[in-house]
From TrEMBL:
Cofactor note: Binds 1 zinc ion per subunit.
Binding site for Zn(2+): 364, 368, 387
Needed co-factor(s): Zn(2+)
Record Gene3D superfamilies: Neutral Protease Domain 2 (1.10.390.10)
Organism: Flavobacterium swingsii
Protein name: Peptidase family M1
Organism placement in taxonomy: Bacteria, Pseudomonadati, Bacteroidota, Flavobacteriia, Flavobacteriales
GO MF term (any one): zinc ion binding
All copies of domain Peptidase M1 membrane alanine aminopeptidase, residue ranges: 360-506
């Protein structure tokens, strides 16, 4: 449709204004024509890719991801499933060996016509054939001519793919019967950024992609319905009322296939799904985004998917208001894949199960539109900025629309983090997502500890500053690749507090927070309190004192590293700001001009992730 073609004109709404001096990012413009054989699940494609080197470096090589190749016996992904202590239950089957239960890689059992593959031929740079080598899921390419800074080159290639039996995310015929979940399905240029090439083999974890525009033609059996990234350009040619144009063409009987033409402007991935039995509903919202829902025509799930639609709109409106406006005209919730996975302008999620499960996954995956798609951190290196911040927005949004609101909707994250610390298996958040010893510690640090980075940031700088930080972070870093320093620096600029110590201790170490009330002694009009710092990580402290008569007073001990004092978050209670506590001192003493006191609590909000809360409370 014409309306969408307009988006190809340089788009103000997609302009990036990353404030870091000299910030640059590479650019890709893909044109792909692909035809899918729905009998063999094999597909053929042609790709034309204009690659712009915005870096200050001359490039002599480039790398492509061939993600499909992971779904083959003996691939890196297979090896990882076999060697990790706690393999993902979706990728391993439980089998009995003697009287022991072991987990076997599902990939190891794939037959040749069930594996995934992506084969490349005819690879050229500006018409010149290129030397290249496939190493598992990575295509290594030597350039025919070096690519100078601030120049573009065109790569062209042909590809032959096979969609694997669904193991993880991408795949065919998943357990809910969705035929084609086409994520990470095409030769995808690896990202080159200020940290160099990011060309990791695919073991089913995180992604990092190049920003650009996708123009994709998909030719497929005419009985299939498609959804995915991008705006459909030819809704009036595909035989049903896809975009409510009111125009439905009758396809000639002998015509076997249709070509679906999508354009996805300014994204870093392109995903689609297809099924013969999709129901396709649309919800036109009053905030400028049309929500699409594609789900199987299965009587057991239809009501859940209908109920999901207004809630999805409510959530998106809350996300818009909390972080910043979703800039695309379309978002699609599609039944497919496994679990749930976020993609540009859409998500593929499992569609069966309870309504709460469906809503929760949708709330999570859609929140990734902000913290993954638009604020595209390198997920592999900083999974906590992707999964953690998404978990924060999901919890916040779900709580806002809940009938019964929780005081702390992030309580599960605190419990998860506490259990990880207790297990002794924590690794720092700077660990590359692929190289955690086990899956569980990875998950908890990414989702729970990453979420707590934000809830605790709110504890540090106060609610108003925190919400302003989220909005400014989005406004400043959208459509780029923000780094950990960027969220920290934004919070510093908004609040005026120094926070480098927080980023360092929380994300680069496994230091924990544990403050305790050591002694409380008093006589006459005076109570002397001695606090101790037991954990390595310093924090500012909010302390609530309740007196015998039930009246309350609060005390605030600034963390000197912050060079800053938080505003009283609870103006209903009188607050005294004490002298700062420098981290080098293991104890801190202060006086209360009243005796006796009934009880004293360090951090009554519970937002500080103190690993031992028992010693936070003194009771007379
Ligand atoms: Zn997620």
């Amino acid at each position: 449709m014409k309306k969408y073609l307009l988006l190809l004109i340089p788009f103000g709404i997609f302009a990036q204004n990353n404030p870091n001096p000299g910030y640059w990012q590479q650019k890709v413009d893909y044109k792909m024509d692909v035809s899918m054989d729905v009998k063999t699940y094999q597909y053929k494609g042609k790709q034309n890719l204009v690659y712009t080197n915005n870096s200050p470096d001359t490039l002599y090589r480039v790398y492509y991801h061939l993600f499909n190749n992971a779904f083959q016996p003996n691939s890196c992904m297979d090896a990882r499933i076999k060697s990790i202590k706690d393999p993902d239950g979706r990728m391993a089957t439980k089998v009995k060996v003697g009287d022991k239960e072991v987990k076997e890689s599902r990939i190891a059992a794939l037959k040749p016509n069930e594996i995934g593959f992506l084969k490349i031929s005819n690879l050229k740079q500006d018409g010149i054939e290129l030397k290249n080598k496939v190493v598992s899921t990575i295509l290594e390419v030597d350039l025919a001519k070096p690519l100078l800074p601030h120049t573009s080159t065109t790569f062209s290639l042909d590809f032959d793919g096979q969609v694997p039996i669904q193991i993880r995310r991408s795949g065919r015929n998943n357990k809910e019967g969705v035929e084609l979940s086409m994520s990470q399905w095409y030769p995808k240029m690896a990202e080159y950024d200020y940290e160099g090439w990011q060309a990791d083999p695919y073991i089913a974890r995180e992604f990092h992609g190049v920003w650009g525009n996708f123009d994709v033609n998909i030719t497929i059996d005419k009985n299939y319905i498609l959804g995915g990234s991008g705006y459909l350009q030819n809704g009036n040619q595909i035989g049903y009322n896809y975009q409510d144009t009111g125009v439905i063409v009758k396809l000639p009987k002998k015509q076997k296939t249709i070509t679906w033409h999508f354009i996805a402007p300014n994204v870093h991935d392109f995903t689609w799904a297809a099924d013969k039995n999709y129901i396709h509903d649309k919800l036109v919202t009053n905030f400028g985004t049309t929500l699409h829902f594609l789900y199987k025509n299965n009587p057991n799930i239809i009501q859940n998917w209908k109920n999901l639609q207004p809630k999805t709109a409510q959530l998106m409106e809350i996300y818009n208001k909390t972080v910043g406006k979703y800039p695309y005209e379309q978002y699609s919730v599609i039944q497919g894949g496994d679990g749930g996975m976020e993609y540009a302008m859409c998500t593929l999620i499992l569609g069966e199960g309870t309504f709460d499960g469906l809503l929760g996954v949708t709330a999570h995956e859609m929140a990734h539109s902000w913290f993954q798609h638009i604020l595209a951190s390198n997920e592999a290196k900083n999974s906590w900025m992707d999964e953690g911040f998404t978990t924060w927005l999901e919890n916040y949004g779900l709580n806002e629309i809940a009938d019964k609101k929780q005081e702390n909707p992030h309580a599960d994250s605190y419990a998860g983090y506490a259990s990880l610390v207790k297990s002794g298996k924590e690794q720092p958040q700077t660990t590359h997502a692929d190289r955690y010893d086990e899956n569980r510690p990875y998950s908890i640090q990414a989702y729970s500890k990453g979420n707590i980075f934000l809830t605790q940031l709110e504890y540090l700088i106060g609610k108003e500053n925190f919400i302003k930080t989220l909005k400014r972070y989005y406004a400043d870093y959208k459509f780029t690749h923000p780094t950990p320093n960027d969220i920290k620096h934004t919070a510093e600029k908004v609040s005026g507090a120094n926070l480098d110590w927080y980023l360092t201790d929380w994300t680069k170490t496994t230091n924990t927070i544990d403050y305790g009330i050591k002694t409380v002694e008093g006589s006459g009009e005076n109570t002397k309190v001695i606090l101790e710092r037991i954990g390595r990580m310093p924090m500012p402290l909010d302390i609530l004192v309740t007196y015998e008569d039930g009246s309350q007073e609060s005390f605030y001990i600034p963390q000197t590293l912050m060079r800053w004092t938080k505003e009283n978050q609870n103006p209903g209670i009188k607050r005294t700001v004490l002298e700062g506590w420098d981290w080098a001192y293991p104890t801190f003493e202060f006086n209360i001009n009243k005796y006796p006191v009934k009880n004293i609590t360090i951090d009554p909000s519970g937002f500080m992730a103190d690993v031992n809360r028992e010693n936070n409370v003194f009771k007379k």
